């Protein structure tokens, strides 16, 4: 909560600074041009904020979580699209009012005669394409790899937009203070991306040098992969977090798959457990011992760091048990574990959970059966955990199950700060 509030405060403060420098630069006589310049500045500020959201900075990620950062990233992305589109439309029509040109020819004239405008037009075109493929309908039709490749062109748009602002931005050139401010915020954002997305992963992988030590089938469609490396006691990973894993084989080195740790890090080994839900996860069964691994992370705020109560309730559904099993290993204090599956044979890692629960004095409930009737409805949860409102609740599972359980927790008046979950569409 503190991190989120701080992030909002930083954005609001910068919005106020942008408005201040905009006012200091003076207003044009044409209202459309004034609106065009203002929307352009806030579009640039949203781009800076977007870079911070995608930088995967450990401090932010551990406190907010990648699922919430990703949700904000999507909203800010569409905010960028609409503000920059408004910037182009307002300026084009504003300048067309004071000339004899129609809006289309006015835009062509600006691109030909004003330095940096052509770069801005190209940047806007890229953002429109990225926005189109990020819509829900298009996103369902595209493979993740294709969508991700198109999305990378956003960085080209960012560079073009920045150089446009340097060349043509009246607020940017209005004073040395404004120029220093904009260079500073762009510099911080770009440096954050460089550190979080490139330098830190390269450094950690050079230092730890992960290799596969064992591949263990847990069931017909679930497999665990064990890894070791150097100085793993210095890797800042916690139970509940996940990595983006690349297994450096000839046919899979280019593909990164997100999987949670299924055992608490012990400073010597790491383990992931995955269900064969796609080509990447299905291929894990065939990874050979000794294969080098490139891991980005750890990511996620689904950790005991956010506990506020001495006792906990852990609720897992399906393969969402992997971070729950790791959390149970790390947690102190009394815990209740509820594991929801369709049938006993779907209860992956159940034997480990049972042994851990016995060793830690925890209660373990295996809930099986069809989806209807809801066996995790408010009344059913209250029977299993009468003191549920006095516990931290950690929840991980398929989205429909999570939505249903979150509804039950709301009906039971479990305080919101005690409910911890992440949408593991990436990391499940």
UniProtKB/TrEMBL annotation:
It comes from the Bacteria. Coiled coil: none annotated. Pfam families: Ferric_reduct (PF01794), NAD_binding_1 (PF00175). Keywords: 2Fe-2S, FAD, Flavoprotein, Iron, Iron-sulfur, Membrane, Metal-binding, Oxidoreductase, Transmembrane, Transmembrane helix. Its cofactor is FAD. One of its GO terms (cellular component) is membrane. Its main location: membrane. Signal peptide: none annotated. One of its GO terms (molecular function) is metal ion binding. It is found in: Membrane. The chain crosses the membrane at residues 7-27, 33-55, 76-96, 116-138, 150-168, 180-200. Residues 205-305 form the FAD-binding FR-type domain. It is a multi-pass membrane protein. This is Oxidoreductase. It comes from Streptomyces acidicola. The lineage of its organism: Bacteria, Bacillati, Actinomycetota, Actinomycetes, Kitasatosporales.
